[in-house]
């Protein structure tokens, strides 16, 4: 696929607030991007005109009921068939922060058996509680299935910012170990919180900033084309977005967030 | 028939409840011998159904489809006739 033919749909509703930054990140690669109001997508039924669907961060519908659930249920009621067709065609879907919450509430992640009619997990109140806005380190755990990390070697440590109050990924207590085994066996685990040196947080705060099960920061579905993460790659696109960039010995052009966008663009253009 | 369906959604045991913990601390500060507070959300849904059983079935569907996440929430339903 040619770079200029790639069309990215960045879906927004009231309360979405990371759409412009996410668009900017994709624009860096020269692809077509469009911020689409969800009602326009419902009206025109044109989801399949796009090659990538993105749920950006924010507080969709004011986080009423639970974070992400109103957006998720609105979409499944109005566009369920098209979303399924989009996924079945292998098109990639990215959910960042509130977008990750939406994918979990929709039943798309982890999505062990395809789209689940009820959520199989939750992204719930941080432990310790409170809104956390800081930079974290992540270790890439995926062995190649996830299309959004194909440009990041397994084991690489990257640095991204988080900004959330409800990012603690939990599975039903009685299913946690079985679900974890499936995540690992089916190569659905993508990012885990770690130290700067790459030591896994082992549920220790603040390295694991939210108490997330198994220090999980991001997972993909069993097909690898749907990916959700709590950290914000679009806020780490350029080197100078890092808070300590003037104190670092080297001056690069891009920050680690670029790798997420680069991965999917490379995949679609068959560079990898 | 018109019904008022009260759906109470509460956290399953073991899930942290910062609002309850903070409120508990303040009530202790105000001199009350409070041990803990469980905070829940109550949705009062006004709907029409042919029977009370149908109203309850619909309420359960609402919980499963929207109001409760089975990983972290419990819910209870109580139904009263409404004018």
Identify the notable features of this structure and list them briefly.
heterodimer, A: 272 residues, alpha/beta, Rossmann fold, 9-stranded mixed beta sheet, 6 helices, 11 strands, 21% strand, B: 83 residues, alpha+beta, Mth169, Chain: A, 3-stranded antiparallel beta sheet, 3 strands, 34% strand
Largest sheet of chain A: 9 strands, mixed
- What fraction strand of chain B? 25-35%
Under CATH, the topology of chain A is which?
Answer: Rossmann fold
Q: Roughly what percent helix of chain A?
A: 10-25%
CATH architecture type of chain A: 3-Layer(aba) Sandwich
Average per-residue pLDDT of chain B, rounded, comes to 96
Overall CATH class of chain B? Alpha Beta
Order of SSEs of chain B: EHEHE
- The low-pLDDT segments of chain B are none
Mean pLDDT of chain A: 96
List the helices and strands and how they pair.
The complex is a heterodimer of chains A (272) and B (83).
Chain A: E1 7-12, H1 19-27, E2 32-37, H2 38-44, E3 52-55, H3 69-88, E4 93-96, H4 98-106, E5 122-124, E6 132-140, E7 157-164, E8 168-170, H5 176-185, E9 189-194, E10 216-220, E11 226-229, H6 258-268
Parallel strand pairs in A: 1-2, 1-3, 3-4, 4-11
Antiparallel strand pairs in A: 5-8, 6-7, 6-9, 9-10, 10-11
Helix pairs in contact in A: 3-4
Chain B: E1 2-11, H1 18-29, E2 40-48, H2 52-67, E3 73-81
Antiparallel strand pairs in B: 1-2, 1-3
